[in-house]
Amino acid sequence: MQQHVDPSMQILKLITILNQKGQEVVEKKPAIFNEIIKITKQVFEGKQDSQQIQRLQQDDIILWARNQLQDSKAQIRQYAIKFLRYLITDQKILGIYRQKGVHYFIARSLQRDCKQSTKNDNSNRQQQQPQYIQQEVLQALKFSNKWLEKLGGCQNQNLTTTSKFPKILGNALVAMAESCEEQLKRYAILTLRAFALNAPEMCSWCGGIRILIENAMEQSLSDISDQIVWTLLYLLNEPSARTTIRMYLDLSKWFSIFTEIDPPIDQAKNDKNRTINNKFEANLQLAKKAIITVLKSWQGLIYLGDERQALKSLIQVLRQPIKPAIRNSIYDILKSLLSLGNKENVGVSVVNRQQQQDGFIGEYKINNLLNNYLVMLVQVLLDCDLFKILVELSGLQDQDVSGPAQRFLKELSSLMFNLIPDCHKYTDFLIAAANQNDPFLQDLKSWSSEIVNTMGNYAFDNTNKKGRNQISKFLYQCESLYLTTKLGLPTHKINNETVGIIRGQIEQETDQNKFETLLSKSYVLEKKEDNSKWNWNYILDLLENYLNDESRYQETIKNRFLKNLLTYYFPSNMQFCKMDWKPDFIQAKCGYLLLKLLLKDKVGREIISSTTGGYLGIAKSYIQDLISLLKADNSYILGFKSSIDQNAQKHAAQHLLQPEQYSQKMIREYISWIGLFSCSKSGQTILENTGIFTILKDYILESGIRDHVLIHLIHSFDYGKQSQARIFFSHCLENGSNTLIKACLDFIRLLYRSELHDFNIWAIDLLIGCLKKSDDIGLKALSVIEEVTLDIENANRFLEKVDIHRLLQLCQKCESQLIIMLLSHKKGFEKINKDLNGYLLNEIERWKQSECENYIEKVEKVMCDALEFVSSEEQQYLFKFPLLQNNNENPNASIGFVYKMPWSMLLNCELGSEGNELVYLNVTIDYPGTTNLFILVGKSDKFIQFHSNNTFVLKLQINVGKIFVDNQFKEVSDPHLIRCDANDKRNKSYVKDNQLIIEKHGILFIFDQFDSTLRLNQIKVFVRLGETKNNTVKMPAHIFGELAFTESGFNLLKNYIDYFVQSIRSPDVAFQQKRSALWAIGHIGQSKYGIKLIRELGLIQDLVKMAEQYPVLSLRGTCLYTLNLICTTSMGRKELEKFQWISHLNCNSGWLCIPKNIYQFFYIRVSLQESHRCYWALQEDIWDKYSKFQSYFKMNQTQKKIIDTISLMSNSITYKEADKELSSLRNQKPECFQDVDLFHLILMMITFYQFSAQAKNRIFSNFDRIFTYQTINIIIEHPIYQQLQCQEPLII
């Protein structure tokens, strides 16, 4: 049996071998040292027992590793640094490193030149390889980063003196970051970032903050620019670190690039100028990005709101004749900010619960959390004169300047009137100027009127008309068909019957001769057997505009015009049904209008349902022919080989109901026309008498073989009253496949949004039934229930019948907040408290312990998503489907349109040696509930398998009917292919639930994984619907807020309020705990019970004081959210007014509150340290030590000359001459450059003064012999040095 070998003892044995002398050991030293590194990594990263770690952290091991840093080979030095880095586990080991002087050697490694070998008279030095030196520098950076991580951040005040970061090392990091090579600069800046986060004051003293601010605009570091900016925002937020950023000086560098008098733009006369031009433009883009990031954070907004000069200069420069590139960049900043608040709140209207408590019930949009931020942003922009400047620019002749300014003025006006009280003061002058009649001021009147007109219609978004006009002709034709053949969802457009009456009145005035001409030239009567000669434009004109007149209608009945036309549409004729589904849709419109016309009266209904000879002598009615088609297809599905009804076995058109044909032929219109019959009582009678629902129920199979027909059908029925259509829909939900049930649930969501009059009586029971099904279906139903129960009547009916245990189970699976939201209803609280024994008390305690702090992360996530809304939404999805051109105010109508479209997918599988295969995919639609997104899901009826080791390429194309479309759903002549290459590393791939998912541009290729094969499961194409218009941030539910809305719930949580109050008032409470307490109090304060108790406790005064004066800036933002929650109650608004905070109501944004003196919110109190922040606090201690050491060490003239020369090397002007002088002195007096005392004084100088990386490298190179031999240890171990070190409060 093999014995276990102690890794630490194994390392000690290898160290013993390395300590031996001999050429063989020297040659094997790198390999042995590398083995030591591997074992050490296993010990520390594998978390071995503490005894092994402590054995490796002993002083003698550390001294041995430190001595290896004196090796002449860079490879050995990098191994030594790596070894010492692994030993860092806590601050105690950092103190040991300080005592042993490890930081001196790390500083030396940071200053080594990676370009070439160090030139020295030592032959071993000449054999240095640049790649090893570069690795040494890289390891030194990693070592410094590890040291900084163990400091614990700027809030950690428990550091011992010996564990703080050495300034000599900080100086080395700053010098390196300022001038290192391109390949190391990224690592240097990231380490400097850690320096700023963990030791901000030291970083500032060393000049690191300045380097970070400058490098945020460095083109080569654009990928980490955001990280740098967020580091600086962290420093701005912390009171103890804020003074490291100099107000009016540091961040102004980002703004100054926009205000340069003569920027290097458009001067690309040669390659050099072109390079400068490109660099400036790159810096401009990064500065723009940094400013946007700063303004989208509370700490950044408050900081710039207090120090407004930088932001004001940025806006004021628009008045100047600046370069177009600079102006466009400033416009980009304004667009990014203003567009956040100019998205339509197309979410579902809900009844505001607090308004009910105040005795007024009305419908309000979902309270938008983003408005709390926007109100302060807009106020800052207005105070920087943005409104005035946009007014000036809007009147200029240059459209490149005035056009964007007018759009911004429109958006700013919208935000002003929605968010800011008494904002009319900004517009009074313009309105007065537009209304004045002074003949000498007509130019002013004209100009002002134009500007007012631009602002005045801010509520009507006309700025996107240009984009809307770019809709494809194909989609416009599809839309026209959809709007002409309106079926399914209720519509908010003008009632179609009213339109018919109006048209009927116009028809009386129309020339009868025109009607007769159209009737004749349609050729339906003259050439009834040759429909290819028919003029369909004339037929459509007749059906739309003339046949609503009773006399003309009766005439077309008598002359068999309508009968001949109806015969054309018989499925068995194979005339219309086999046509390709592509423009023009005139026959489809005519068929719909014809059936609609005939269903209006008894004679017309008899024509539809009774046998007619027609021009082909067919002995069936239209409806009978359709029933025969469905029966024949039903027999095919059920697999009947024989039947009593022989006519049901075959039908000429039954093959067109197959998925591929159904998505490409006009047969699908017959299915949608069934919905026409459900729109009237007489039409429903025809359907019931023919038994069509019985036939259609046979289509409902678990296999889902005819789901494509059923889904189309359920979107065509009218559900406005109790009928067979509702019964059939219920049957689909109860017995359908998972795909069909999910489609039905999506349709229930749309019915709710369409305000179906008795929705809560009918649909709620259906949703409850779906909760009892599989988890997959239950979770889908849950997502719909979350929306529909926002309505109180729906919620009460739901609570009466739901199984609360099953609901809780589903909520826990998907982390739904529905259970918590139901606590705000009296019935909900009683049911949950009664049926879920002990759940509420346990849940409240869980929220107190952890969920209140987790709630902060949820809020921050939704806010971050909203603040990145514009850029992320534009880039996330490759496919974008436009809203309806003629009904763009109703996104739900567009969703109904999407479901009616005949989607199909074709997949070309290139399998290498196995050849190619073209596969048709059945397409279904998944609507997650967000108003601007739907998913096309493609699945194949056959297995598509690949060997996991073989290469394969999938090429996907999406069609609508027979039309090829691109990613904007415009008609194209060739297929628009999306390629999925298994070996393409640019694709994002991951494994989830034993499925391989390859993601590309919002398209998911999902494969089931088996031992050696992959099988295509489905393809999901995420499609953004219309322009990105919904930027509403719905506040996540909070259990304490929901409980507070009922008296019983409030009594349950009352005992916890003192805990939150103490957390807010106590100065010793952790930051996150204080924030979580603020959110809890804010939500409790939304109820009449909660605000009453908060007022009695006198807490509002504390909250106002925190919002105006708290030193942590981001917490002021949280306080603002809290106060805005409190101001939703009338009592809360009255209390806030006592402390000079005013509340403002707007129908679009709800209640908002701001201080009367807006500067109070942005004011940052200057600390006593502010005036001293540019000085290093320990400078006097260093000089005291320097004086004491001088009294011990008496220098000769040469040594004084060396000191003077090195001091001149800190100046870039005198550096070259000083460097030459130092080299000359070294040649003349080499023994002076081996003097330990002199070198100690030089180290003190390097610690105190800022030297460039090049200067430090030259200095260290001249004294390299001290680093190489044991003489360096004298500085660390000699009593006089130790005595000096003990006397300083912070070791250098």
From TrEMBL:
Stored InterPro entries: Pianissimo_fam, Pianissimo_N, Rictor_IV, RICTOR_M, RICTOR_V
Biological processes per GO annotation: TORC2 signaling
Occurrences of domain Rapamycin-insensitive companion of mTOR N-terminal (ranges): 36-421
Domain Rapamycin-insensitive companion of mTOR: 1071-1143
Domain Rapamycin-insensitive companion of mTOR middle: 510-754
Superkingdom to which the source organism belongs: Eukaryota
Signal peptide coordinates: none
Protein name per its UniProtKB record: Uncharacterized protein
Species name: Paramecium sonneborni
